[in-house]
Amino acid sequence: MFCSTVSVHLNGIPFGNVVSYSDGPFENSTGVPYFYMSALDPTPKDLAIIPYASLTVSEAPLGTCGLRDVEDPTCAKITLSGQIHLLDKDAQALEFAALALFSKHPEMKDWPKDHNFNFFALKIQDIFLIDWYGGAQVLSVDDYLANIQHSSI
């Protein structure tokens, strides 16, 4: 999955970075992406100055696109855009983010402590979905969140 920011280290040029994410543990998906990123990574540095980002996820890694190209409109892809913020003051949000991420990415628990990893969440403001021919659909955030049926994004 790719997270794109406005790059501080590249003087405002867009920057895309591969990120792992989770929207909740397997039995409690929320639709809200959570991230675990190192202070050494350029993405959190960008977000500290300009908090806007986009997360793009494709259906292709699930294997359900068959031999179709990842860009084929029938191989669904969604872009969630908004502000990614550091979860540093809300103990309940931190606990949920840790559960969400470590349940799906257990190796994260063992990543080096001296790399200063922190939890982040995307406050979704816009949703762009392509899942068929005829162009993209813009989904409302309320409809998207209301239709999460305990399946992971």
From TrEMBL:
Pfam families: CREG_beta-barrel
Residue ranges annotated for the CREG-like beta-barrel domain, each copy included: 4-145
GO CC annotation: cytoplasm
SUPFAM superfamilies xref list: FMN-binding split barrel
Protein name: CREG-like beta-barrel domain-containing protein
